[in-house]
Amino acid sequence: MYDYIIGQVTRITPEYIVLEQSGIGYMVMTPNPYEFRINPKHQKVFIHMHVREDAQQLFGFKTLEQRELFRKLIQVSGIGPKSALSILASGNPSQVIAAIEMEDEGFLVKFPGVGKKTARQMILDLKGKLGSLLEHVELPSAQDELPLFGGNFHQQELDEAILALKALGYSEKELAKIVPDLKANEELQSTESYMKYALKLLLNTK
User: Fold this and answer.
1) Phi first, then psi: what are they for 127, rounded to 5°?
2) For a 10 Å CB count at each end of the chain, is N or C smaller?
3) What is the pLDDT at residue 126?
4) Structural domains in the chain?
């Protein structure tokens, strides 16, 4: 029904953004809401409308590649929209695609809601079917993959990032392991930067 919406981001929460267009504020669930900014400039958000018996939800993505991978993921048995958002929250679709193509179950089970059975199902269902998508994914540089963040930590921004990570399905126990590293990094100042670095740590500590 929707391909994308161009509008103003008027609100950001740990779980969703509000995208206003023509006087209507759309609640849009996103992998990392803090990738967006509240400003008067219009932004394009690629949309997937998910319809259930009890609800209709809008999911939004900064890139077309993210949305198409999301649609592939929710076709896999055992993966719902929330799990798919958690997988995409790292902001690196190419890593997920590579893990599927290389049958790297160890990487896939690091995401909330993905156990060994689900990881194997992802590989069985999607391996060999993502080639065209991979061609359009921009591979990040090593610097993008492992940014050298430091820590004069900002409590409010850190708290917002922790809430967003909980919304994605990470447990308090998992988050407690990485909080000291987040606080110790002097260059982390925004919620988005805390989110990105926290996800890097979480994917390397399980």
Assistant:
1) -60, 130
2) N
3) 93
4) 4-61 (2.40.50.140), 64-140 (1.10.150.20), 146-205 (no CATH)
